[in-house]
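Can anyone check this?
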Amino acid sequence: MNTNEARRGIVALVAGGTRGAGRGIAIELGAVGATVYVTGRTTRAERSEYGRPETIEETAELVTAAGGSGIPVQVDHLVPDEVATLVARIRTEHGRLDVLVNDIWGGEYLVEWDTPVWKHDLEKGLRMLHLAVDTHLITAHHALPLLIENPGGLLVEMTDGTAEYNAEHYRLSPFYDLAKTSINRLAWAHAKDVAPHGATSVSLTPGWLRSEIMLEEYGVTEDTWRQATEREPHFAISESPRFVGRAVASLATDPDRFRWNGASVSSGQLAQHYGFTDVDGSRPDCWRYLREVQDAGGPADTTGYR
């Protein structure tokens, strides 16, 4: 994509695009021809505390291969000066920002499941909140002024669980619960601020995501993931990172997306509305399945849910 084409197409920032949902979103934005700045801490030269092998360069290359233009930029979104420098670069190179996806997380290895606050490691819990909430606020502070300069901008705050589901369910621990419910509220609050500028803010959750970490946990690959249902039958409702990526791409290319302003939505919900499917051609509706089947104690059966 040359400079003129990039200026005519979508200019997006996927903050936290190294792996998982962020990578899937970046790729699918690339598939609609977007220029995508992919940020994260892990590069081919340096790994973050995660110690994971995925890199921002790999994601950027996948964006370009999908038809867009991927630009990897190493950024720690807890460092305001690094985020400010990133946004200044986007302004210099493109003069605008059309889509901001706040997908920064990095807390999987900090979560202590089903653990009350007095038993949860305090340092890990507070670090989780810094990674999940502070990063999103810092990034929004620096990037939204550029996003709202032109009407039609889109802010997507990524989380785990819809506002409705999270309001009714305790999410693992007070730290994790607060991290994930806070983002739903944050997107709603941003919606009030950006609406007068013609921009849209939504919170978006994937379903049971087949991230690199999840596949590794079950000892499967994206091609063999169904084998994991022998260990966890409800994994049958899981989805690839590309599914939520297609949700973001659908929002980004919808001229009437303001209808979603302030909403908390899922990949499955948007798939029903826009008609896209996962990479296997199915349309999983995970959060409805969790509520009506898994949480209700029913046997694993995705009939009518994908």
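Reply from J.R.: I decoded it. The first helix runs from residue 3 to 8.
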